[in-house]
Amino acid sequence: DADVTQTPRNRITKTGKRIMLECSQTKGHDRMYWYRQDPGLGLRLIYYSFDVKDINKGEISDGYSVSRQAQAKFSLSLESAIPNQTALYFCATSDVSSGANVLTFGAGSRLTVL
Amino acid sequence: AQSVTQLGSHVSVSEGALVLLRCNYSSSVPPYLFWYVQYPNQGLQLLLKYTTGATLVKGINGFEAEFKKSETSFHLTKPSAHMSDAAEYFCAVTITGGGNKLTFGTGTQLKVEL
After folding, report:
1. In terms of CA atoms, which chain A residue is nearest residue B35?
2. Cross-chain Cβ contact B45/A106 below 8 Å
3. Which residues of A touch B42 (CB under 8 A)?
4. Strands (E), chain B
5. What is the rounded average pLDDT of the residues A75-79?
6. What is the pLDDT of residue B2?
């Protein structure tokens, strides 16, 4: 099984719908992140969490929310999806003890908003 | 805030030729620098990282990068390209004490031709 598992891998939805992307990890890492990838823009940080009680906004958090249900689970929600949220979403984890913050990525969740 | 700039969104080389992917960074404090690779339909994988110490760092699959403070650069090289190197490559930067969040470049798509 993958160290970082994202579900669903692909999702097509309509404008205005609520969507949840889920991430679970078996790495035992304390830090978890959600990034969004768009062609030509690279990866941009949406939210990050350093432990269950710590949630922080990234550079593009508007229109998104997150929940850290447990150390191993970090969900990203789009309360009312819009077409410009069509993107590839990545969950990542890291271990504070690694010092230089090496990220372990999931395989991605491709979201299309019609 | 720190940032990275990747020069060239697409690079094409012949199999066996030198690979050179360019990355310049901006940071007011000593940075940690990374190269990640993304193969089609997969998440990102760490190729190599620079934290402190030796400025020439070696990574997986024969890649290496040199940290040049005077040029604010961290270019990725491989002496001889292989077809399997075709992928998208991302340079990233973080700093200590900055929440250890990675800032990614916009990516360079490497094409390897016969």
Report:
1. A102
2. no
3. 107-108
4. 3-7, 10-14, 19-26, 31-38, 44-50, 56-58, 64-68, 73-78, 87-95, 103-104, 108-113
5. 96
6. 85
